[in-house]
User: Fold this.
Amino acid sequence: MAYLYVVDYKYKENVDSALKSLLEELQQNITSAIPFVRAAHYGNNDSQFGSGFTQTFIVELESKRDARRYETHPYARRLWNVRKEVAQGKYIWPCPTVLY
Assistant:
């Protein structure tokens, strides 16, 4: 059974290109950096979400236990630090969801 870890990033306006670059980099490297991650996918939601826009980062994990391991992994923590790194005031907040 696959376990999906989904993080939606919600923005007040169009997403900063630096954030796009970071998410693309994480998608390309996360499976080699974190062995228990099966796959990762990053995508844009081009339609408006309320008063802003969203981006979604989805990670497929091997087991339910890996959701917590993923959250505390230093590489995955970069996703949570996006606000400090590149958001420049456009960022609202990441909303993690674990789907079973």
In short: The chain has one domain: 3-99. The chain has a mean pLDDT of 68. Residues 17-33 form the longest helix (17 residues).
